[in-house]
Specification:
This is Sodium/potassium-transporting ATPase subunit beta-1-interacting protein. By secondary structure, the protein is mainly alpha-helical. The protein has a domain of 132 residues. 64% of the residues lie in helices and 3% in strands. The chain has 5 helices and 2 strands. The two termini are 28 Å apart.
Length: 190
C-alpha cells in the first residue's frame, strides 16, 4: 500500500467514523445519555485530528488519533458488555446517563415498539416514582423488530470495527511518514 492510498484509506475511515459517531450522538442526545454524549464529543475531536493529520501529513496528529482509537475500542467494548449485561454490568443501571434516569432512545422508539407505562400493581397510568425529576420508564415494551440493546450493540460494534481499522491504518501511515523523514535525513548527510 503506497503513501497516497494509505492516506486515502485513513481519510475514508475518518469520514465513516464521523458519520457513525454523529448518528450515535444524535440518538444519545434524544435519550439524554450524558456519558456517551461526552465520550462521542471527544471522539469527534480526535477524528478531526486524524482527518487533519492525514491531509497535512502530520505524524503527531495521526499518532494521537491512533492512540485515542485504542481507548475508543475499550469504550465500545464496555458499551457492548454493558448492553449485553456481561458480568456485573446492568443495562438498567444509571452508569451511562450519569444518574438522570434516562434510557436509550431506542428502548421505546424502535421500529414496531409499543411501550406500556401502566403500573402492574394497581393499573393506574403511572407509578409514583420516589424521584419525580426522573423520566417515567415503561413497565414493558413489546413488538420491537429489534430489541434496543441489540441496536446499541450493533452501533458500538460498528464503531469498534472502524476504530480497529483506524489504529492499524494510522500506525501504518505514521510509519510511512517516519520512514520518509529518516530517508530524507540520510540523503542530506551523504
Amino acid at each position: 500500500m503506497g503513501k497516497c492510498s494509505a492516506r486515502h484509506f485513513v481519510l475514508t475511515i475518518c469520514t465513516l467514523q464521523l458519520l457513525v459517531v454523529v448518528e450515535c450522538q444524535v440518538f444519545d442526545f434524544m435519550g439524554f445519555m450524558y456519558g456517551p454524549i461526552l465520550a462521542n464529543f471527544f471522539h469527534i475531536i480526535f477524528i478531526i485530528h486524524g482527518f487533519f493529520g492525514a491531509l497535512q501529513y502530520s505524524t503527531k496528529y495521526i499518532l494521537s488519533y491512533s492512540l485515542w482509537n485504542i481507548f475508543w475500542i475499550g469504550w465500545t467494548v464496555f458499551i457492548i458488555c454493558f448492553y449485553l449485561d456481561t458480568g456485573v454490568l446492568d443495562k438498567n443501571s444509571d452508569i451511562l446517563n450519569l444518574g438522570t434516569g434516562s434510557r436509550s432512545w431506542w428502548e421505546i422508539h424502535g421500529y414496531g415498539c409499543i411501550a406500556d407505562f401502566t403500573s402492574v400493581n394497581n393499573g393506574s397510568s403511572l407509578e409514583q416514582d420516589p424521584d419525580p425529576s426522573r423520566p417515567p420508564r415503561p413497565t414493558k415494551v413489546e413488538g420491537c423488530l429489534i430489541e434496543y440493546q441489540f441496536i446499541e450493540v450493533i452501533q458500538a460494534s460498528m464503531q469498534c470495527l472502524l476504530s480497529i481499522l483506524a489504529v492499524i491504518s494510522g500506525m501504518y501511515m505514521s510509519k510511512l511518514y517516519i520512514d520518509e523523514d529518516d530517508s530524507s535525513c540520510l540523503h542530506l548527510h551523504m
